[in-house]
């Protein structure tokens, strides 16, 4: 019982932290399930369901706060959605899946602790050809790893000076919603059933996500949250790569 409560608390915290920066939290939820030694078949579809709902809440809050630009988002969606659908149909052995996801978690850790270039004061115009190409790679990786792809897209938008942090959060949130839906449609989910535990996972993530999306879009100075989230993801990354 104590472990169950701790698991739900971790999911709530991850939902809160991710939503506060415009993400759905799939990589964080997978990290939590990995730390609690829960097998992937038990949580795989629920990660994307949580991703869709929480990223939608984050998008709505950042949109209401005036940070969303459609021109920043549509080129990535155009190519990432079909790529995510295709990627979700690739069967990856559990060991290799853990390694790939562990390596993928390094990207948000690097970004969160501030090692990547920070946003520039003046935004550049989105390069359409490059954005379409990035959408293919990020979408395919998202589908294969059962995540929404925001952990890849956000740093790219900032590094290329196409968006500031809040604009990146708004665009990434919508990106995550559509790529997660594509992953759900493309994944083989017929063998999965809902359980009391899965509903509790969803509820905990939703409570955290709703609070994080509201506060993150309006009030937060996000340095402390970024460092805490980076610590969790770093631990999960090490476990996935070396101890799974």
From TrEMBL:
<comment type="similarity">
    <text>Belongs to the 4-toluene sulfonate uptake permease (TSUP) (TC 2.A.102) family.</text>
</comment>
<feature type="transmembrane region" description="Helical">
    <location>
        <begin position="70"/>
        <end position="90"/>
    </location>
</feature>
<feature type="transmembrane region" description="Helical">
    <location>
        <begin position="199"/>
        <end position="219"/>
    </location>
</feature>
<dbReference type="InterPro" id="IPR051598">
    <property type="entry name" value="TSUP/Inactive_protease-like"/>
</dbReference>
<feature type="transmembrane region" description="Helical">
    <location>
        <begin position="130"/>
        <end position="163"/>
    </location>
</feature>
<protein>
    <recommendedName>
        <fullName>Probable membrane transporter protein</fullName>
    </recommendedName>
</protein>
<keyword id="KW-0472">Membrane</keyword>
<feature type="transmembrane region" description="Helical">
    <location>
        <begin position="225"/>
        <end position="243"/>
    </location>
</feature>
<feature type="transmembrane region" description="Helical">
    <location>
        <begin position="46"/>
        <end position="63"/>
    </location>
</feature>
<feature type="transmembrane region" description="Helical">
    <location>
        <begin position="169"/>
        <end position="187"/>
    </location>
</feature>
<dbReference type="InterPro" id="IPR002781">
    <property type="entry name" value="TM_pro_TauE-like"/>
</dbReference>
<dbReference type="Pfam" id="PF01925">
    <property type="entry name" value="TauE"/>
</dbReference>
<keyword id="KW-1003">Cell membrane</keyword>
<keyword id="KW-1133">Transmembrane helix</keyword>
<keyword id="KW-0812">Transmembrane</keyword>
<feature type="transmembrane region" description="Helical">
    <location>
        <begin position="96"/>
        <end position="118"/>
    </location>
</feature>
<dbReference type="GO" id="GO:0005886">
    <property type="term" value="C:plasma membrane"/>
</dbReference>
């Amino acid at each position: 019982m104590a472990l169950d409560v701790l698991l739900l608390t971790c999911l709530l915290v991850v939902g809160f932290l991710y939503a506060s920066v415009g993400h759905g939290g799939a990589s964080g939820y997978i990290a939590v399930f990995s730390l609690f030694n829960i097998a992937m078949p038990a949580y795989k579809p629920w990660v994307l369901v949580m991703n869709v709902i929480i990223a939608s809440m984050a998008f709505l809050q950042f949109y209401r706060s005036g940070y969303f630009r459609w021109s920043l988002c549509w080129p990535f969606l155009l190519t990432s959605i079909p790529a995510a659908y295709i990627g979700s149909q690739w069967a990856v052995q559990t060991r290799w899946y853990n390694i790939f996801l562990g390596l993928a978690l390094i990207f948000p850790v690097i970004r969160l602790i501030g090692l990547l270039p920070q946003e520039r004061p003046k935004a550049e115009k989105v390069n359409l050809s490059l954005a379409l190409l990035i959408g293919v790679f990020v979408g395919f990786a998202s589908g294969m790893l059962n995540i929404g792809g925001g952990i890849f897209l956000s740093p790219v938008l900032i590094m290329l000076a196409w968006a500031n942090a809040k604009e990146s959060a708004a665009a990434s949130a919508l990106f995550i919603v559509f790529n997660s839906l594509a992953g759900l449609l493309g994944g083989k989910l017929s063998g999965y059933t809902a359980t009391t535990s899965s509903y509790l996972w969803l509820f905990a993530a939703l409570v955290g996500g709703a609070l994080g999306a509201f506060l993150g879009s309006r009030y937060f100075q996000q340095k402390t949250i970024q460092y805490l989230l980076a610590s969790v993801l770093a631990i999960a990354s090490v476990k996935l790569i070396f101890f799974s």
